[in-house]
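Researcher: Good morning. I'm working through a list of sequences from a screen, and I'd like to move beyond sequence-only analysis. For each chain I'm collecting a predicted structure so we can compare shapes side by side. This is the next one on the list. No need for commentary yet; just the structure.
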Amino acid sequence: MEDPESAGSAPPPGLSSLLPPREFLRSRKGQLLLAESVLSFIIFICYIASLAASFMMAPLLEFLLALFLFFAYASKLNEKFKGVHWPLADFLRCVTAAIIYFAISIAAVSKYSDGASKAAGVFGFAATIVFAIDFYITFNDLVTFLKQGSSDSPEGHKTE
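Model: Good morning. C-alpha coordinates for this chain:
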Protein backbone atom coordinates (compact mmCIF):
# COMPACT_ATOMS: atom_id res chain seq x y z
CA MET A 1 0.00 0.00 0.00
CA GLU A 2 1.38 3.40 -0.97
CA ASP A 3 1.52 6.32 1.46
CA PRO A 4 -0.85 9.11 0.24
CA GLU A 5 1.63 11.82 1.23
CA SER A 6 4.38 10.35 -0.94
CA ALA A 7 2.11 9.62 -3.92
CA GLY A 8 2.67 13.03 -5.48
CA SER A 9 2.14 16.72 -5.08
CA ALA A 10 -1.50 16.67 -6.20
CA PRO A 11 -3.99 17.31 -3.39
CA PRO A 12 -6.50 14.58 -2.64
CA PRO A 13 -9.89 15.06 -4.30
CA GLY A 14 -12.60 16.54 -2.17
CA LEU A 15 -13.48 19.87 -0.68
CA SER A 16 -9.84 20.88 -0.33
CA SER A 17 -9.58 21.09 -4.13
CA LEU A 18 -12.09 23.96 -4.05
CA LEU A 19 -9.92 26.10 -1.78
CA PRO A 20 -7.79 28.78 -3.43
CA PRO A 21 -4.02 28.28 -3.52
CA ARG A 22 -1.93 29.69 -0.66
CA GLU A 23 0.05 31.92 -3.02
CA PHE A 24 -3.12 33.75 -3.98
CA LEU A 25 -4.27 34.07 -0.37
CA ARG A 26 -0.92 35.65 0.51
CA SER A 27 -1.03 38.10 -2.39
CA ARG A 28 -2.27 41.65 -1.93
CA LYS A 29 -5.15 41.13 -4.38
CA GLY A 30 -6.25 37.95 -2.63
CA GLN A 31 -6.25 39.61 0.77
CA LEU A 32 -8.17 42.63 -0.52
CA LEU A 33 -10.81 40.49 -2.21
CA LEU A 34 -11.14 38.34 0.90
CA ALA A 35 -11.53 41.45 3.09
CA GLU A 36 -14.11 42.88 0.68
CA SER A 37 -16.09 39.64 0.74
CA VAL A 38 -16.03 39.34 4.53
CA LEU A 39 -16.94 42.98 5.12
CA SER A 40 -19.74 42.88 2.56
CA PHE A 41 -21.19 39.76 4.18
CA ILE A 42 -21.02 41.31 7.67
CA ILE A 43 -22.69 44.49 6.40
CA PHE A 44 -25.38 42.41 4.69
CA ILE A 45 -26.13 40.57 7.95
CA CYS A 46 -26.22 43.87 9.89
CA TYR A 47 -28.69 45.39 7.42
CA ILE A 48 -30.94 42.33 7.62
CA ALA A 49 -31.09 42.70 11.40
CA SER A 50 -31.64 46.48 11.32
CA LEU A 51 -34.42 48.90 10.55
CA ALA A 52 -32.49 49.90 7.41
CA ALA A 53 -33.25 46.64 5.64
CA SER A 54 -33.83 48.51 2.39
CA PHE A 55 -30.04 48.90 2.08
CA MET A 56 -29.33 45.15 2.15
CA MET A 57 -29.23 44.67 -1.63
CA ALA A 58 -26.00 46.64 -2.22
CA PRO A 59 -23.87 44.61 0.24
CA LEU A 60 -25.34 41.37 -1.10
CA LEU A 61 -24.40 42.23 -4.68
CA GLU A 62 -20.94 43.41 -3.66
CA PHE A 63 -20.42 40.23 -1.63
CA LEU A 64 -21.35 38.07 -4.63
CA LEU A 65 -19.18 40.09 -7.04
CA ALA A 66 -16.18 40.06 -4.70
CA LEU A 67 -16.61 36.33 -4.11
CA PHE A 68 -16.83 35.68 -7.86
CA LEU A 69 -13.70 37.71 -8.55
CA PHE A 70 -11.91 36.04 -5.65
CA PHE A 71 -12.46 32.60 -7.16
CA ALA A 72 -11.94 33.87 -10.73
CA TYR A 73 -8.51 35.25 -9.86
CA ALA A 74 -7.67 32.24 -7.67
CA SER A 75 -8.49 29.78 -10.46
CA LYS A 76 -6.79 32.02 -13.05
CA LEU A 77 -9.91 32.62 -15.13
CA ASN A 78 -8.52 36.05 -15.96
CA GLU A 79 -5.73 34.34 -17.91
CA LYS A 80 -8.09 31.93 -19.68
CA PHE A 81 -10.75 34.45 -20.78
CA LYS A 82 -8.94 37.23 -22.60
CA GLY A 83 -12.15 38.78 -23.98
CA VAL A 84 -12.92 40.41 -20.64
CA HIS A 85 -10.69 43.30 -19.59
CA TRP A 86 -10.36 42.16 -15.97
CA PRO A 87 -8.50 45.15 -14.48
CA LEU A 88 -11.04 47.61 -15.90
CA ALA A 89 -14.00 45.55 -14.68
CA ASP A 90 -12.40 45.25 -11.25
CA PHE A 91 -11.64 48.98 -11.17
CA LEU A 92 -15.25 49.91 -12.01
CA ARG A 93 -16.55 47.48 -9.40
CA CYS A 94 -14.32 48.96 -6.71
CA VAL A 95 -15.15 52.58 -7.56
CA THR A 96 -18.90 52.00 -7.55
CA ALA A 97 -18.72 49.92 -4.37
CA ALA A 98 -16.73 52.60 -2.53
CA ILE A 99 -19.21 55.30 -3.54
CA ILE A 100 -22.28 53.21 -2.71
CA TYR A 101 -20.91 52.04 0.64
CA PHE A 102 -19.99 55.60 1.60
CA ALA A 103 -23.47 56.89 0.71
CA ILE A 104 -25.47 54.15 2.44
CA SER A 105 -23.21 54.26 5.49
CA ILE A 106 -23.87 57.96 5.95
CA ALA A 107 -27.60 57.33 5.55
CA ALA A 108 -27.59 54.38 7.96
CA VAL A 109 -25.66 56.21 10.67
CA SER A 110 -27.57 59.49 10.43
CA LYS A 111 -31.14 58.33 9.78
CA TYR A 112 -31.55 55.15 11.82
CA SER A 113 -31.03 54.86 15.56
CA ASP A 114 -30.86 51.09 16.13
CA GLY A 115 -27.56 49.40 16.91
CA ALA A 116 -27.52 47.14 13.86
CA SER A 117 -27.83 50.13 11.52
CA LYS A 118 -25.01 51.91 13.31
CA ALA A 119 -22.85 48.78 13.12
CA ALA A 120 -23.62 48.41 9.41
CA GLY A 121 -22.65 52.05 8.91
CA VAL A 122 -19.34 51.64 10.74
CA PHE A 123 -18.51 48.46 8.81
CA GLY A 124 -19.60 50.31 5.66
CA PHE A 125 -17.03 53.03 6.30
CA ALA A 126 -14.38 50.34 6.78
CA ALA A 127 -15.49 48.70 3.52
CA THR A 128 -15.28 52.08 1.78
CA ILE A 129 -11.62 52.33 2.81
CA VAL A 130 -10.85 48.77 1.67
CA PHE A 131 -12.55 49.30 -1.70
CA ALA A 132 -10.76 52.66 -2.10
CA ILE A 133 -7.39 51.00 -1.49
CA ASP A 134 -8.30 48.30 -4.00
CA PHE A 135 -9.34 50.76 -6.71
CA TYR A 136 -6.19 52.83 -6.13
CA ILE A 137 -3.98 49.77 -6.60
CA THR A 138 -6.04 48.57 -9.56
CA PHE A 139 -5.90 52.05 -11.11
CA ASN A 140 -2.09 52.07 -10.89
CA ASP A 141 -1.97 48.64 -12.55
CA LEU A 142 -4.41 49.81 -15.21
CA VAL A 143 -2.35 52.92 -16.00
CA THR A 144 0.82 50.83 -16.26
CA PHE A 145 -0.97 48.41 -18.60
CA LEU A 146 -2.28 51.22 -20.80
CA LYS A 147 1.14 52.89 -21.01
CA GLN A 148 2.68 49.60 -22.12
CA GLY A 149 -0.05 49.13 -24.72
CA SER A 150 0.40 52.61 -26.20
CA SER A 151 4.19 52.27 -26.55
CA ASP A 152 4.11 48.84 -28.23
CA SER A 153 3.31 49.87 -31.80
CA PRO A 154 3.68 53.52 -32.77
CA GLU A 155 3.05 52.64 -36.43
CA GLY A 156 -0.45 51.41 -35.60
CA HIS A 157 -1.57 54.92 -34.62
CA LYS A 158 -0.84 56.49 -38.05
CA THR A 159 -3.82 57.62 -40.08
CA GLU A 160 -4.11 57.06 -43.79
